[in-house]
Amino acid sequence: MDTTHGYVKRLYKPATESSVIVKVLQDLGAIPFCKTNVPQTVFTYGSDNLIFGTTTNSHNPKLSPGGSSSGTGALVGAGGSLFGTGTDIAGSLRIPAHFNGVSSIKPTLGRVGSKGHVSSLPNVIGVEIVFGIIAQNPTIVGAVSKLMLENQRQTVHDPLALPIQWSTDAFESKKKLRIGYFTSLPYFPTMGDSGDMVIKAKEALESLGHTLVPFQMPDSFNYMKMIVKFALADQARHFKECWKNEEVANGVKLAWISSKIPLWGQKILSRILKSRVLPFLHSPRSAILFGGGATTSIELMDAMGQKMEIIDQISTEWENLKLDSLICNVLPFPALVLDAPGNLPIAAIYTIIWNLVDFPAGVVTMGYESGKKFSMYNDDGDMALKLAVKSVKDSVGAPIGIQVVGRRFQDEVVLRVMKELEPFNTFKSRNNDSNQ
Question: Whole-angstrom Cα distance, residue 111 to residue 414?
C-alpha cells in the first residue's frame, strides 16, 4: 500500500515490504484490514491532508482526533478495531489516545524494530521516533505488547531489534511502587480538569497501596528551546522539498508560512513575539519556535550536551526519590476544535520530553472534561495560551488521559501501572451510560 504522509506526490508508490511491527503481528495471526489517515507532514497532532480530507474525533466531530496517528486513534476510539499500530516522535501515539479516550504505549527506543518504516522526517537527530500501538484499553495494550516482545519474535525480521525479553515478573509484580507526579508545566500550564485527572490517578494509586510523591521537572522553557534546536535544525528543508508543487493542508499552514520566512526574518519575529510592542502578538512561548533551529554543527553538538544534562537532571530527581514510575498530563488540555492543533504545536511539551530522554510512556484515560474551570485559566497575556482557551469551546465531555512514564527498558512497569488504573476510568462508564 501507499505511504503518502499526506502528500499527493506520494500516491501510487506502494511499499514493497511491510514494517517489522506489521510482520510480527501477522506472524501472530493478526489481519491488517485497513490503513488509517494521517495529517500532511505527519509532524503535527492535527488530522487533515488533501488526499483523504480531515479525520474527526470519535466522540465529537467538532473536535480533533489528535495526531499524527489520527485515523488509528479515531478508529480504535469508535470501536472499529481493538488496536492499531503507529509511530511516535513527539506524542503521535499518545495524543490520539488522549483525545479519543483510549490507551497507548510509546516503548523505549529499540524494543520494537524499525526496519521497513518510512520516516516523515528521516534525518532528524536528538529526538527519536519509536513504534507502538493504540488500543481500546490498557489490558489490550499490555496483551499485544507481551505477544510482540516475548520469544524475541522481532529478531527474525530485524536483527537490530533489541533482544530484550518480555518481563512477566515486572508486569505481574504485586510489589508496592513509589510513583512521582506533576500536574502542570510553566511553559504551557494545564487548563480545565487536566491537572485534576493526575490527582485523581494519584489518589487511585494510593488507594492501591502505592506511595506517590511530587516530582520536580527541569525548566520547561529551557528544554523546549533545546528540542527546537533538534527539530528545526534543517531549517524546514525536508518539508519544503515535500511541499514543492504540492497544495498545503490547512492543518500545517502555519508551519508552511514559517518555512517561507528567512532566518533573519524569523529572528526579528521572535523578538517581536517576546516583546509587547504588538500586544496581540505577544507570546514568549511561541517565540522559541522562530529562528530556534540549530544552524551550525557547534550549536547541534551543544544541544546534544544540553540533552544529556536534561537526562541527568530527570534521572537524578528520579533516583533521589527512589521512583519506579511517574504520572503526568498528556497535554495541557482535552481534545481541541479541529483546526487548532496546527497552531499550537508547543503544547506537545508534555509528550515530546519523553521522546527526548527515551523513557517509555503510555496513556490511560481517567475521566472527562467538565468545562467548569476554563474561565479561571490565567493566559499570562500570551497569544498561544489565549488561543488554547478559545480552542476548548467545544471540549466539554471530552475524554482526558494521563501519561504513565518509566525508566528506559522498564516498559512492563509502565504497562502494569496503566492496567492498575484502568478500573478508575470514569469516561468509559459515562460514555456507556450515555449510549443506553
Answer: 14
Residues with Cβ within 8 Å of residue 317, at least 6 apart in sequence: 180, 215, 216
Q: How many residues does the chain have?
A: 436
Rounded CA gap, 19 and 28, in Å? Answer: 15
CA angle at residue 79 from 360 to 51, to 5 degrees?
A: 85
Beta bridge partners of 404: 327, 362
Report H helices in 87-214.
Answer: 94-100, 138-149, 168-172, 194-207
Cβ 233 vs Cβ 292: under 8 Å:
no
pTM for this predicted structure: 0.96
Rounded CA separation 90/436 (Å): 37
Q: Are 111 and 164 in contact (CB under 8 A)?
A: yes
| Residue 288, Cβ density class (10 Å: 0-12 exposed, 13-18 middle, ≥19 buried) | buried
Tens of pLDDT, residues 208-257 = 999 999 999 999 999 999 999 999 999 999 999 999 999 999 999 999 99
Q: What is the distance between the alpha carbons of residues 205 and 211, in angstroms, rounded to a whole number? A: 8
Smallest CA-to-CA distance from 398 within 88, 11, 101 is with 101
Given a cut of 50, whether residue 335 has pLDDT beyond it is yes
- What are 111-162's pLDDT values in tens digits? 999 888 888 888 888 998 999 999 999 999 999 999 999 988 998 999 888 9
Residue of 260, 254, 252, 281 lying closest to 269 (CA atoms)? 281
Interacting residues of 130 by C-beta distance below 8 A, sequence separation 6+: 87, 88, 89, 106, 107, 108, 109, 112, 355
